[in-house]
Amino acid sequence: MAYPGFGGGIGQTVPGTCPPLLAGGSPGYIAYSDSSDPMWSYFTAVAGQDGEVDAEELQMCLTQSGISGTYSPFSLETCRIMIAMLDRDYTGKMGFNEFKELWAALNAWKQNFMAFDEDGSGTVEHHELSQAIAVMGYRLSPQTLTAIVKRYSKNGRIFFDDYVACCVKLRALTDFFRRRDHLQQGFVNFIYEDFLQGTMMI
Exposure of 175 by Cβ count < 10 A (0-12 exposed, 13-18 middle, 19+ buried)? Predict the structure, then answer.
């Protein structure tokens, strides 16, 4: 069964949530070098010799790609948690396949945001953030939604960068919880160190 906070069962993918595993292993670990892919050009323009990007390089890459459109570029802190969300080998960096996974999630989140930002102001209201979270498939209590709105709103409005940061944390923490909720019952037992390692990285 699916527990509150994740839209659907393991085999069901919701925009902005964890995709199904690729054949042969986890997403993010497949060699790729297709120079015809525009994302590959964005990525390699800033990637280091190790073929990965850190938070500053990711920020540069996303800014140059124009994925944020008319909205403000992503902050360095948001880029840090983007990497943490997909950093399955705990290197503090992101490879190209992980970048492609992030790109797909960002596009889904952006479309969701734009659906509520009807006036093109680059912000949504607090009740619209709650609606956007529900559209992504999360089933959260009013108390949890209120806490999220307080964390990410400024003067009652949520900017695109904060909205994406919210989406990243929701996905990362849900994935962290789901990996430990083997029976999908909605509760798990944590040891203190495991909890800290999982939450402090995001």
Answer: middle
Angle (deg, nearest 10), helices 38-46 and 96-116: 110
What residue has token string 């734009």?
114
Distance separating alpha carbons of residues 14 and 170, to the nearest angstrom:
13
8 A C-beta contact, residue 171 and residue 18: yes
Between 6-20, 28-42, 177-191, the lowest mean confidence (pLDDT) is in 6-20
Query: What are the tokens at 152?
Result: 């990410």
How many whole angstroms separate alpha carbon 160 and alpha carbon 39? Answer: 22
d(CA 116, CA 111): 9
Whether the model clears a pTM of 0.85, i.e. scores above it, the answer is: no
Residues 99 and 181: their CA atoms lie apart, in Å, by: 27
